[in-house]
Amino acid sequence: MNQRATPPSRPLASILVFSTVVAGAMDAALAAKPSPGPATTGQWSPVYPWPDVAIHLHVLPDGRVLSYSDDDHPDYHVNGSRLEGQARAFLIDLPAGAPPGTVEEIPNTRTNLFCSGHSFLPDGRLLVMGGHKGRDGWGDTETNLLSYGTNYLWSPGPDMAEGRWYPTAVTLANGEVLVVSGAKDPDYTNNDLPEVYQTNSTGTWRALSSARRALPLYPYLHVAPNGRVFVAGPDATTLYLEASGSGAWSTVASRSGGFRDYGSSVLFDDGRVLVMGGGDPPTKIAEVIDLRAASPVWRTVRTMRYARRQTNATLLPDGKILVTGGTSGGGFNNASGAVYTAEQWDPASERWTTLASAQVGRLYHSTALLLPDGRVLSAGGGRPAGTNGGADNENVEIFSPPYLFKGARPTIVSAPTTASYGSTFFVETPDGTSVSSVTWVRLSTVTHGFNMGQRMNRLGFTRVTGGLQVTAPSDARLCPPGHYMLFLLNGNGVPSVARIVGIR
Fold first, then answer.
1. Which of 450, 170, 427, 187 is CA-nearest to residue 312?
2. CA–CA dist 485, 487 (Å, integer)
3. For residue 3, is it within any domain?
């Protein structure tokens, strides 16, 4: 908490006169300038119940949200002991503009998926790697695949070479999935062997045996415009990993903000990366790097208003970045320093805007993701044993960004469910003449403050009778295969409700 210095003493009469003058001036200023409304600050929903502490959140290709956490539930205990090897998982409907709807439980009875890594395959299945095996730090070797649609089914994938607990995964330009880091035994030994899940007919793991390197848990990974994987943190020295062959590392540049765990990182605009917050004590620092440059360097931009640790960052349809939750207090998970106020970063001006405040503190084990209707789901936040964290939050809040209060939304009548690279496809809309931009945002898969899936592309389009002809990206390095939420935005920056389109 900020402390104020004690002012020098003054005679009571002078204080009263001064206070009266100041109060009058403030009243006049407030009367002349009305309080900002939701078109400026956005608006939070009521707090809604949720079936678990949403430690892992995903938007599936059919628009439903998948949520799972730990096996820490009475149904999964015998005589007070956990039944390891099981995970509760829930599918939740979130109709456009509405509260959470139908909940369906789809437990995984094979693996405790707590603290796993995850990424979407080109066909829309969710690949989940590792998890919790007996105790914290002991990562599982198992992988699991979730199919979606008429039947939601968990199926076993091939085992990795060693266990992973707190790993990060990312889908590559060729559709394969890279996984790095994670702890592999009860001593928290780092898994230094990167592996690639091959999506060809073998469906096996390929070890990057020449690229062994110990990375911090849950590192920030992004596919760069050159096709390599960029590691933006938490270490200050940032790296490229070449994931072909047996793998190779190279150094890119160093950030000025030092080691920053439990901050967040977002890839935006086809190759620029923003890292913000994190560290202990938490920092306000925000830094940007442009991976399209011949020699990329980190550059410090304006700081956030609040220092934040255990925060989440969500990429919006208009390209702005929403930051929610976290704590400004020192230590691992300091609930007394919880930050309720959201902030938004504009890449065009590189400025932060303070937005509305949530009702629930979201700290360690919190998550946030973009919904197809343009709102942001903010969930979770729990108290690990032995820390000074806050309560376990089996609830969610939904944030409506300012753009949802700036007039009518464009509508999409129809759009294809699939597109090929470089192709042109028709989007039927009665609002074609008012559309100023078309974007799509990759489906989210988020945990522990980092969204392993999100990235966006700005799509070219032409107006035609009945709608728009939209051109899909031609370069898979800028748009890895998978599913994206397609948005139409009008001149006021108001997005449509998205249609989900797969590109392969």
1. 450
2. 6
3. no
CB 69 within 8 A of CB 53: yes
Torsions phi, psi for 336 (to 5 deg): -70, -20
How many helices and strands in the chain, by DSSP H and E?
A: 2, 42
Question: In this structure, is residue 65 part of a structural domain?
Answer: yes
Check: pTM over 0.85? Answer yes or no.
yes
Tell the residue number behind the tokens 């956005």, with chain if given: 42
φ/ψ bin of 110: left (φ > 0), alpha (ψ from -120 to 50), beta (otherwise): alpha
CATH label of the domain that carries residue 147: 2.130.10.80
Mean pLDDT by 10-residue block, N- to C-terminus, for the chain (504 residues)? Answer: 34 34 43 77 98 96 94 52 76 97 94 96 97 92 94 95 98 98 96 96 93 98 98 98 98 94 96 98 98 97 98 98 97 94 98 97 96 98 52 91 98 98 98 98 98 97 98 98 98 98 97
Let me know whether 242 and 359 are in one domain: yes
- Residue in this structure with the two tokens 């979407």, named with its chain if needed: 120
Residue with tokens 């919790």: 132
Last residue of a domain, which of 375, 405, 435?
Answer: 405
My answer on whether 294 and 430 are in the same domain is no
Do 98 and 180 lie in one domain? The reply is yes
Together in a domain, 148 and 234: yes
Instruction: Give CA angle at 397 (437, 108), nearest 5°.
Output: 95
Residue 17 forms part of a structural domain: no
| Other C-beta atoms lying within 10 Å of the C-beta of residue 395 | 19
Return all residues near 395 (Cβ < 8 A) that are at least 6 apart.
Answer: 47, 48, 49, 50, 360, 379
Residues 320 and 187 in one domain: yes
Last residue of a domain, one of 382, 405, 428: 405
Q: Is 337 helix (H, G, I), strand (E, B) or coil?
A: helix
Distance of alpha carbon 158 from alpha carbon 150, whole angstroms = 24
Which uninterrupted H or E stretch holds 14?
helix 12-32
234 prior amide bond cis, ω within 30 = yes
Are residues 142 and 102 in contact, defined by beta-carbon separation less than 8 angstroms?
A: no
- What is the rounded CA–CA span in Å between residue 2 and residue 493? 36
Give the residue numbers spanning the domain of 360.
41-405
92 & 47 share domain: yes
> DSSP code of 201?
T
SS (H, E, C) 184-228: CCCCCCECCCCEEECCCCCCCEEECCCCCCCCCCCCEEEECCCCC
